[in-house]
DNA sequence: TTTCCATTGACATACGAATATCATTGGCTC
DNA sequence: GAGCCAATGATATTCGTATGTCAATGGAAA
């Protein structure tokens, strides 16, 4: 028996220490009804004494089931993706599934590498965020026989399953709402849309709604900055926008943190919200409701997206087949005082 | 060869499809210098064609190395633990290590279950947050031969390695600072200390500093609420504290989010900060610096704790032994206008 | 022609859990 | 005493990758 490392204690060690055969110990653990209660008790005592923990690696090789779920998120810190990941974890944990987590930094190549690793590790299912993937990732996932969930957006073409909400429609609705409020000079602030279908769809939703309302859209209408979206980004941007010859009377941020940054800047600099400029965000982080001027935002359910994604893959893994492959968790325009 | 599932494509399939022996294919992948270049090219073409991805489960059984690191965090959403986990991930990813993530919800039992699973999955190292563990967890980690890091706090008795900062000293220093500013009625607001060594040490630091300064500490001085600490918790508490017959003139929050909530409430209700009440937090989330009244707080480096923890275990796994087992990343009193 | 070396292959085995199949043993019932 | 059944054991093998060791082959150099 290996000394001092519980990872190295094997069924063989239990067999020797208990004076019973290997097959009996295995039976006691896997088919207890075939082993006498006294024998089982003796085995359990031995297991407790020598600290045997089954090697799940070896088991998964035989059973063809790893009980691991791979999850890729673009970022974790200061974002709803943390809520999402926590939601996933809370569904997996009681079912004894282990989450493999990878952070892609919005890089499709890193996502690809993560997916390849999940496959190599025999993950039973894979959850990715969004629809922007490399061609290789698509191929890998296309040949992956387990459930695949693309989360955080909805599109017609889905690799397997999708859990999210319509980013395009959400942006259309918010833009329409702002137009309906009579704002003349609406500016949209978004993250880089390249490799980010969510940002792409939100941007397109904004543009389409503006054009449908006869509004012009030019370089001054859409302001773009790099991911990730930060508070500081919003703080830095606002003075520039307000210093324009023709400043905006409404700003629609396609992410929540920069909107918070903008709100802070306005509060700190005596800019009346929504009197001088209205501000709308996207995500409804907790802070939005408790700002001195509660902020209008698109409310989405990051945690629920995680939970639903995990529930969907678990159902699929348990053999349930008559479930919808697409789950629209919707969004909600949370209208507050900032607009 | 298995149809349609890239997880099922084996070395044997490559051998057959290339007309070369199993051992040659294996050699080409593992000891390329022993295989002719033309042969290697042929093998690589075959691998690309049939989509072979090595089964890391089987490999780890043989190699006795899983290249997986288990990480337990108490929560992910809206907390610096997300920064921490991201920091861990960023150090592991370039080294091709896979993070196994578990969320314990501040439950030592859940932490125990996670640790047991990491051991069963042959994780090469384990990173836990804090020093509060069940006795069983201590035993499991005591018999685990890989590196173990207890992160987010520092204490004299360490199971293996520790990466964090002195929560006790940080609270002492901030309390002393507030006392030195002349605040008469300082109230501390903290999360439940049970099973949470960080909260425990912060609370003890506050109490000790108060008593050392001849200040009384009673039920009105220390306000406790359940984990996790939320914005809404701070918003709900402030009116109660300010409605006291003898309201506090300074409030020291032992976590950052409730402090933000308190700041929002004061801003919304015309309470002058720090004129009527000073507010200090613990964590220095980004928002603290950009509030209309920038907030004083204990600055800690969540992400760096993650990175350092991961770097430490990687160094240990790579055989480096002459490295400190304890890394004090320190803290910093970030004094701003709220006090 | 002989020797040496690079390359490939055959064979056996390891890692640890799981299990199919047949055999053995003891106790109980008829 | 025979038959049956519960319980345990022996044997062989699987899962997929890795590797030690020896054998075989072809090509090049001396």
Summarize the structure.
Two copies of one chain form a homodimer. By secondary structure, chain A is of the alpha/beta class.
Describe this structure in words.
The structure is a homodimer of 339-residue chains. The first copy, chain A, has helices spanning 11-18, 22-30, 37-50, 56-63, 80-92, 108-120, 135-142, 167-180, 197-212, 231-242, 256-268, 287-290, 302-317, and strands at 68-73, 98-103, 125-129, 148-151, 161-164, 186-191, 222-225, 250-253, 278-283, 296-299, 326-328, 332-334. Chain A is of the alpha/beta class. Chain A has three domains: 6-54, lambda repressor-like DNA-binding domains (434 Repressor (Amino-terminal Domain)); 66-164 and 302-328, Rossmann fold, CATH 3.40.50.2300; 167-299, Response regulator (Rossmann fold, 3-Layer(aba) Sandwich). In chain A, the strands form two sheets. Chain A has a six-stranded parallel sheet, with helices on both faces. In chain A, strands 7-6-8-9-10-12 form a six-stranded mixed sheet, sandwiched between helices. In chain A, helix 1 (11-18) crosses helix 2 (22-30), helix 5 packs parallel to helix 13 and helix 10 packs across helix 11. Chain A is elongated and about 90 Å long. Chain A starts with 10 loop residues before the first helix and ends in a 5-residue tail after the last strand. At the A-B interface, helix 4, helix 5, strand 2, helix 6 and helix 10 of A face helix 4, helix 5, strand 2, helix 6 and helix 10 of B. Strand 2 of chain A pairs antiparallel with strand 2 of chain B, so a sheet runs across the interface. Chain A binds a DNA duplex (30 and 30 nucleotides) through residues 10-12, 20-24, 26-27, 29-31, 34-36, 39, 54-64.
